[in-house]
Amino acid sequence: MLLVDISAMFCLPEQMAERVKREVVLMGEALMGGQTPAKPVDSADYPACAYCDYKALCGFEEGDPVREIAKMDREDALKLLEQDDA
Predict the structure, then answer these.
(1) At 41, phi and psi to the nearest 5?
(2) Is the pTM of this model over 0.85?
(3) Are 41 and 66 in contact (CB under 8 A)?
(4) For residue 60, what are the contacts with CB-CB under 8 A and spacing of at least 6?
């Protein structure tokens, strides 16, 4: 159970704050279930593993799948969250 008021902390509408809470719970459950794939974020600004303290332990190798995060401003991100939650 999250004890933090995410909607107030990040100035999110209540519906989106609930979505964030659900995602955090799912992430926690995955971690507790041992699901911790080495799939780092890779972008021009942050190359995969460049700043990671765990790169020697995770087993990620060049050519393995990575996550890409699209650049967007806050408004576009909020719109995307609303679409995904509908």
Answers:
(1) -75, 140
(2) no
(3) yes
(4) 38, 39, 40, 48, 49
**Residue 40: closest CA among 68, 13, 21, 15:** 68
pLDDT mean across residues, the chain: 77
Residue 64: which of 81, 34, 42, 86 has the closest Cα? Answer: 42
Q: How far apart are CA 8 and CA 78, in angstroms?
A: 15
Say how far apart CA 75 and CA 24 lie, in whole Å. Answer: 21
Rounded CA-CA distance 5/24 in Å is: 13
**Cα(83)–Cα(78) distance, integer angstroms:** 9
DSSP 8-state symbol, 8: H
Banded pLDDT at 33 (limits 50, 70, 90): very high
Rounded CA separation 75/16 (Å): 13
